[in-house]
Write a structure and sequence with these properties.
By secondary structure, the protein is mostly helical. It has 10 helices and no strands.
Length: 241
């Protein structure tokens, strides 16, 4: 059943990302919690999002602000070391259920208007460190990175391209991390391939229908699904105590 539903969900969440501008990764991982145990969600989600962000980043590669990416990547490896230690020593899923639920609720209820924070070189390095930790533990790093692109000195294409390129590396480096943690990607290769194909198709479809769908309805549905997923995770945390 998941081999049919999850690729379709990957397609639909890619459409959401294209129509709303972001949020597809968080929505995807939230829905995946209804079908898969936490231990396999993050590795699979990482590969699918690597493909999804990769297509956007490569398509807009001429707009990438490489200086932002360069300093972001300096901090990321240190974040992976921390994430490896946490994942290696905290094996109970209950801890991660609660963390993921809090993260999802923050995504839904965070302030709509955020001040401009124009990071310097060290700032991007620190952000890379925390984005690597969050991406490895909770799957999606976009909501952490996005507020730092609320600035008036970047074009829309530069924001989308640079943010996508940073997330490409976040998701790509998670693959060797989870291999070190003995996750068997080959065992789930069929699901990964189908979901990745769905994500690519969803990106193409989303571009075509962009502007033809009510954004307000999409956002309401998006937030509703996230809140339901967060409530379910909190329930699973409570049952597991």
């Amino acid at each position: 059943m998941s081999l049919i539903l999850l690729p379709l969900i990957a397609l639909l969440t890619s459409v959401v990302s294209a129509v709303i501008g972001m949020g597809g990764g968080v929505l995807l991982i939230s829905i995946m919690t209804f079908f898969l145990p936490y231990q396999i969600i993050i590795p699979i989600h990482g590969v699918v999002q690597f493909i999804s962000n990769g297509s956007r980043g490569l398509f807009l590669i001429k707009h990438v602000r490489w200086r932002f990416v360069q300093f972001f990547l300096i901090g990321a490896p240190f974040g992976y070391w921390v994430a490896y230690y946490v994942l290696k020593n905290f094996t109970s899923p209950n801890f991660y259920y609660l963390m993921l639920a809090c993260f999802i609720l923050y995504t839904v209820f965070k302030p709509k208007k955020l001040p401009q924070i124009k990071l310097k070189t060290l700032g991007w390095t620190v952000l890379g460190f925390f984005a690597a930790i969050q991406g490895s533990l909770l799957g999606a790093s976009g909501p952490l990175i996005a507020p730092f692109y609320v600035r008036d000195d970047l074009k829309k294409e530069e924001i989308i391209a640079t943010k996508a390129m940073q997330q490409i590396f976040i998701h790509m480096f998670k693959i060797p991390l989870f291999i070190q943690l003995e996750f068997d990607y080959l065992e789930y290769s069929a699901l990964i391939i189908l979901m990745s194909a769905g994500a690519l198709l969803g990106s193409a479809l989303g571009v075509k229908i962009l502007g033809k769908v009510s954004e307000s309805i999409f956002k309401k549905l998006f937030k509703t699904v996230l809140v339901i997923a967060a409530a379910r995770l909190i329930y699973k945390f409570g049952v597991g105590i």
